[in-house]
Amino acid sequence: MAPLSDSPEDRAKQADKIVKNPANYKICEGCDSIIVVKAHTCPNCASYRFEESTAAVIQQARVLGRRERRSVMVSDLQ
Ligand SMILES: [Zn+2]
């Protein structure tokens, strides 16, 4: 059984949560991951350089939320 965090629906929910609370997150400049603002280094690539602007976080969350979707759902077409 695949971990729940790998499902497209959960990715979309995660992206939605980030969009609603962008001040809690930042973007890694090394790998473009979105991580919690309290982290000192990126858990993925160990970078310590981050983009912390809320506008950039929102944009990146939307990009990631779309990218992780594997199939088109009815709600996408509205
Ligand atoms: Zn990184």
Can you tell me about this structure?
There is one protein chain. The protein is 35% helix and 12% strand. A 3-stranded antiparallel sheet has the order 2-1-3, covered by helices on one side. The protein has 78 residues and is an alpha+beta fold. The radius of gyration is 13 Å and the shape is globular. The model has no long low-confidence stretch (mean pLDDT 84). It has one domain (4-70). 17% of the residues are buried. Helix 1 (8-20) packs antiparallel against helix 2 (54-67). The chain binds zinc ion. Zinc ion is lined by residues 28, 30-31, 33, 42, 44-45, 47. Zinc ion (ZN) binds at residues 28, 30-31, 33, 42, 44-45, 47.
